[in-house]
Structure formats: structure tokens, C-alpha cells
Design brief:
Elements: H1 10-30, H2 37-50, H3 61-66, E1 81-85, E2 99-107, E3 114-117
Antiparallel strand pairs: 1-2, 2-3
Helix pairs in contact: 1-2
């Protein structure tokens, strides 16, 4: 196989195209900025690995690799609104909101926390 010839690796090129199209659709639907494309592609790839890829498949790619069904209870829609609790040294006054609305971007590997987009910062 010759290097730098995408025509010789059609399966991978099709997967890349599908991931980019999914990421573009997620960014447009969530109305988030274009520079979050990397998180959108990672989210699309993660969802792709957690779902069936063929009709009558013996399992998802995750299930075939790890030997058990994936836990999908933590999945959220890309860009969905989440509320972040304000806490720490900068305690707000009593009558001001105690949380801020942000947009979900990804999850943090190895913990139950999420990564969110803060437009202000």
C-alpha cells in the first residue's frame, strides 16, 4: 500500500467522513462555536463505539473489545444545557443565582464529572 493515497483505504476514509459529518451536525444543532470541533468528533466516535454498527451484529465495538455491555447511563446529548454550581471563595450574595448555565461538551475519563463550555471564559 502506497503512503498518502486515501483511495487505497476506503473504510477508514468513510469512517472519518462519517465522524466529521456527525460532529458538524452536533455543532450546528447545539449552536456552539466551530473551535469545539475536536470535542464533537471525540463525542461522535465515543457514541459510535457504544452503538451497533451492523444489523444483527454480535455486539457493539465496545462489547466485543471489553467482553461486556457498555454502561450508557452517563451519556448526554452534545451541547445540552447543564447547570454548574457556584461554590468556593467567590460566594455570591444571598439573592443571586447559585448556579450558571453552561453547555455540555464531553465527560471526564475516570470520574463522574463532565467538561462544559463556558462562553464567558
Amino acid at each position: 500500500m502506497a503512503p498518502y493515497l486515501p483511495s487505497q483505504n476506503g473504510v477508514v476514509e468513510r469512517m472519518n467522513r462519517m465522524l466529521v459529518e456527525l460532529a458538524c451536525a452536533m455543532l450546528l444543532a447545539s449552536e456552539l462555536p466551530e473551535f469545539l470541533w475536536e470535542a464533537a468528533v471525540a463525542h461522535a466516535a465515543y457514541l459510535r463505539n457504544m452503538s451497533y454498527t451492523k444489523p444483527k451484529a454480535k455486539g457493539t465495538p465496545y462489547q466485543l473489545w471489553h467482553g461486556h455491555k457498555p454502561n450508557v447511563s452517563h451519556l448526554r446529548e452534545f451541547g445540552t444545557p447543564i447547570w454548574v454550581l457556584l461554590q468556593g471563595q467567590k460566594v455570591q450574595r444571598k439573592m443571586l443565582p447559585k448556579s450558571l448555565r453552561q453547555a455540555y461538551v464531553s465527560y471526564d475519563e475516570g470520574s463522574k464529572s463532565v467538561i462544559y463550555y463556558n462562553a464567558a471564559t
